[in-house]
Please model this.
Amino acid sequence: MPAPRFVERLNEQVGYELAAHNQYLACAVHYDALTMPQMAAFFYAQALEERSHALMMVQYLLDTGADVVMPPIEAPVSSFADVVAPVELALEQERRVTAQINELLVIAREETDFASEQFLQWFVKEQVEEVASMSDLLAVVRRNASVVENVEEYVARESRSDKGVSTAPRAAGG
Model:
């Protein structure tokens, strides 16, 4: 069983991942309302990914015999000034999640919880990719805020790239 301190913090992280899911849904709806289908699809997919991360954490807790406690979820920001603001918020959120995952890793190491440390390695790698992807998207959106067709074209082109075989942990319910 994972260290109690790790279990408590991972349960909190489940809530953060579900809050990120809701935040990405709000971003997707914003872009849908602006008739930006590529950006909307990108953020709908991001929302599902965040939900999946939460369920991977739930499954890990279940697999290790730890208690799963569903935490309260913060309400998302649902109103944005322009096409840039949701991506700025998303990048900020990814940076925050990266710090949270790193804090979990520190706890696992301090508790000599090797299984939990190994479990987190996939999330560490995932966060590097997420921050890089969102940073790139923000640069494109800032450069093309007045020509949203260019943003749409970029997202369509980049979403066609193949991610290859997944090494992600198993998700609860999946």
Observations:
- The radius of gyration is 17 Å.
- The chain has five helices and no strands.
- The chain has one domain: 4-159.
- The mean pLDDT is 94.
